[in-house]
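# nightly structure sweep
# worker-07 picked up a monomer target from the shared queue
# config: single-sequence mode, recycle default, output format = C-alpha cells
# input follows
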Amino acid sequence: MFYKSYRGVKCCTLVHKNVKKRYFHILSATLLCIMIVLSSCTPRPVGSGQTSGNNQHSANENSTVNVSGRVLNVTSPRFELSNGFIAPINRQTEAPSGWIPIASAEDFDRIRLNPSADYILMADINLADISDYQTTLLQGGTVDGNGHTITGVRWLDGGGPPIFQLQDATIKNIAAVLNGGPLISTAERSQIINCNTSGSMSFFEGGRVITEDEWNAYNNLAHQRATGTTITRSPLALVISDSIIRDCYNVATIEDRVGTFTRSVDFSGLVVGAGLSRIENSFNQGSIHVTSTYEYGNVAIYGITKGGAEAIANSYNSGDLSVSGFSESSVNGVVGTIGTTVPGSIVNSFNSGNLSGGRVAGVGNRITGHNIYNAGNIHATYSAFGIAEGIANQMIMTSYNIGQIAGTEISLFGSIVDDRAQHVYFLDNIETATPDGALFATVKRLTEAQMRDQSFFEGFDFDTVWEMGGTEFPFPVFQAIYSW
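# output follows
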C-alpha cells in the first residue's frame, strides 16, 4: 500500500535540562543495556529548529511553529528552543575571573598564542575580518561562546577552513554560521557542548553555481587536504575521538558535486567519524544532497555520524539525505555502524528525513540498540531497509518502521541472526522482515490501523518511555528524551 509521509515527527523531541549523567554498561549474553538515570528536576522540552536573537517558541500539542522559515508540526506536548540553543544560556556581560574576553576577530585570532587558557566571547565574531584565517588550535583550554555567533570564512576555490581543532579542550554555547568549512576539524578527548551550526557547506558563490573548473579545483584541494583514503564533509566536526557531543544541532545544508576520482567521500549531518565517543541530545535538520559522477570509490551519507561511537542517545535526523547520479552510493538515516568492533548502542533515537540513494537504511547499516524508529520515506536504486541492513553484535529491541519504502529489494532488515531482533514492528508496505521471508516470534508486520493502536506494541514501555502521538503522527513517540 502507498503510505503518506507524516512530516510532523520532525520535532517530536523533548530533552531534560540540568540532568546529572550516569552511565551504566551492563554486558549480558544478549544485550548491551544503557540505562537512563533521571534526576528530579522538571523536563525542559526542546524543538528541532533554530531561532535567533532572544526569541523563544512554545506550543501545545499539534500546533505549528515557524522555525527558520519552515513550518513544523509540533507533536510533542510542548516546544521550546531557548535563544536558538538547546540548553539555556545566561549571557555574561563581563568576563568571569580568570577568563580572557574575546571582543573582536583579532582577539579570537590570538587564542592560538595561548591555547590552554579559558576564553569567553563578548561579541559576535566574523572570521572574514582576519586576513588569511587559519584553523584555531585549542589545546587544553575552553572557549565559551556565551551565546554569540562565529561566522566562518570561505576560500575562493570552494569550501573553507574549519574554525577549531580541539585537543583535551572544550567549546560550548557557540552558534556557528558556516561559509564552506565546518566548526571543528578534529577533536580528541574533548567536549562540544550546546553548539549549533547554520548557513551552508554548499559550493555556491553569490547564488550562482561555481564553474566546472572551480569545482575541479575544489575537489583537487579536497584530495590534498584529506587524510587516509576518505574525504569527510560534515558541519559540526569532521572527526572526533574519545569525545562528547551534547546538546548540539545542525541546520546548515550541504550540497555537493563529486567528480570521477577513486577515493571515497563521506557526508554526515553532525560528524563523520566518532570513534569511542558519545553523542547525546543532538539532532540534524540540514539536508544533504550529493550529485555524483563517480566511476570508482563510494559516496555515503549519514544523518548523524558514520560510526565508531560508544553511544548515540536521545538524537535524531530530520534532514532529507540523497545521492543522485551514482547507483553504488549508500544512505543511512542516523548512523552507519555502532556496536560492531567495540561495544556500543543507539537508544531513544530516530530518523524522519526522506532518504534516497543506491542502498538505503532508515536508521543504520549495522547497529545495536533499542527504542529507535524510522518515519522517513526511503527510495533506493537497489536495496531498501526500513530499519537496518544488519544487526551488530548485540540486539535491536522495541523499535519500528512507519516510512514508505521503495527499491528493487525491500525488507525491514537485510538479515537477522539468532533472534537478535525482538519486539520490532513494521508497516505492511514491507512484505517481510528479511529478504528470505523468515518468520520471527516478536518481529511483526502490522496494518496502519494496528500501528495506531498501542496494544499491538508488545514490549514497549508506555509508562516511562513511549506514548502514542497526536493527530499529526498517531504512532509511538517518546514521552521525553532525557540526558543519561
